[in-house]
Every structure is written in structure tokens, then in C-alpha cells.
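The pair is listed for reference:
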Amino acid sequence: MTQFLHHRFTAAATLSLALLVLLAACAPAASPPAADLRPIEVADVRVEIGIGSPIPVEILVSGTWPDLCAQLAQTSMEIEGKSIRVQLSATDADPNCPPDFVGVPFRIAIPLNGVELPEGDYAIEVNGMTTSFSWPSQ
């Protein structure tokens, strides 16, 4: 009888452990604390309208990274009427990053879906730098 109870207890313990491992694997991962993002310095904003169907539209942004270790951390876009606002943010400053005496340039192409974009003249602002374009292109 004790051998039977020991076997039952061992089987129940093994099953419980397996369920705990399975539930732990399915739990959402803890998100890291929010970093202090910083805006990226933008030197130029252009709109490039291509050829095709649908017509490809890209917002071309160039500028300088805040430091040698910075990476693009977040991109957000808001469209209100004929105004498009884009915010580009870099990762938090790393105190161990070597000094940047030259300035590392970047170029980013942000796609803009023009399929249902109403006709008109649009103003675009990316981190304070502005440009405009007409849609559809003429």
C-alpha cells in the first residue's frame, strides 16, 4: 500500500511540476522599464513619389545620430487632415559610449500609404524639420 501511495504521490508531483513549467512558459514576458528616449536631430526631410500601382510614397529623413551608440528606438506618425507629423526617437544615452567628434549620419525611408490618401497639398514635420508635397503628384 505504501508503495502504491508513493507512486501516486510521485506521479502527481511530476504532473504538477510539468504544469507549472508550461504555465510559466505561456505567461507574458515582463517588459523592461521604459528608457528615456531622446529626439533624433533631423537635417533634411523630402518626399519621394515613385511609379507603380499603387504609387509608392516615402518620407526620406536624414540627420545625425545623437551619439555613436544610439539606435532608432521608436517611430510614431500622426495624420490630421493634410498635416503629417513624424517623431523619431533614439535610445537612452549610454554613459560608456565613446565621444562622437564627427557625427554619424543616418538616412531613413518611412513608407506612406497613398492608396486612400485624399487629394491635396500635405505638410510633413519630422522632429521639427518640415516639407510639403502634393498628392497625387503632378
